[in-house]
Amino acid sequence: MIDLHTHTTCSDGTDTPFALVKKALSAGITTLAITDHDSTAGWSDSISAIQPHFELVLGAEISCLTSDGISVHMLGLLFDGENNEMQQMLADSRDTRIPRMRKMVELLKADGIDIDLEDVYQAAPEGATVGRPHLADALVTKGIVGSRDEAFLELLNNESKYYVTHAAPTPVEAIRAIRKAGGVAVIAHPFASRRGQIITSSTFSDLVEAGLNGIEVHHRDQNAAEQENLIAIAHELKLVITGSSDYHGTGKLNGLAENTTHPAQWELLESQADARRVVRK
Ligand code: AMP
Ligand code: FE
Ligand code: FE
Ligand code: ZN
């Protein structure tokens, strides 16, 4: 079983990278990618947990904004973690998440919701990329909402008046950086319409020109029709098709390997990186 998109305590997941790899091993996963938001901080801890006959794919999920302001998530897999441009791009994104979170907290406070930036930091593990899920957890701790899900539904979703974006690379810039660092780029849940505005199918050709390698098709936030449309686009543009859980531990309902990638598709994707960078014991 191949699961190419998961999160840990280095962003908004609830398992440490070490614990996540152990869970993947017991679940019978043979290839696992760890893809924290805008961070590679979990890589070394995840490596220390691997066993023989298991492939670890190091990556990150990069938050992007199109020039029209649409939020896009780009999975970068198998890139060189020492690449300066890549690390700078990730660091810039993490940095702008701080003033962004401050703004969201101020907007909530201005509406009488009793929350402070300090509460959000309390909810985020040490060194984690700070995101809305931590704000959601802080709102739960304060008894303002009952769950992360409710927090997103009522206050934090992309259409909410409290939602603020942070500065981010465009999808084209992210793809170029990933490819320059030797990795492969897979656009994450592109048609997950319930998350907010989505890109149009015509955008894909620009992304392919920039070096896009694959499309995440099988993902719980995309219904059957959305997945069918993506499969057609992938075939037309000769892109790899992936499926994955987007596991976040107890932070979301997504179960490990609830969606997976076909071995032949993974083989094709891996062959497009500039070096064999899968980690094995
Ligand atoms: P941010 O990167 O701070 O904009 O937060 C986006 C993250 O919030 C996504 O990557 C998801 O992990 C999470 N998220 C989005 N919608 C929901 C939801 N309805 N329930 C829980 N987590 C969500
Ligand atoms: Fe997330
Ligand atoms: Fe995502
Ligand atoms: Zn994700």
How would you characterize this protein structure?
With 281 residues, the protein is an alpha/beta fold. It has two domains: 2-94 and 167-270, TIM Barrel, CATH 3.20.20; 98-156, DNA polymerase, domain 1. Helix content is 39%, strand content 15%. The chain has ten helices and seven strands. It has a seven-stranded mixed β-sheet. Helix 4 crosses helix 5 (132-141) and helix 5 crosses helix 6 (148-156). The longest helix is centred in the middle third of the chain and has 27 residues, at 84-110. It starts with a strand and ends in a 10-residue tail after the last helix. The relative contact order is 0.18. The model has no long low-confidence stretch (mean pLDDT 97).
Task: Indicate the topology.
Blueprint: E1 2-3, H1 17-26, E2 31-37, H2 43-47, E3 55-65, E4 71-77, H3 84-110, H4 117-123, H5 132-141, H6 148-156, H7 171-180, E5 184-188, H8 203-210, E6 214-218, H9 224-237, E7 240-243, H10 263-271
Helix pairs in contact: 4-5, 5-6
Bound molecules: adenosine monophosphate, fe (iii) ion (2 copies) and zinc ion.
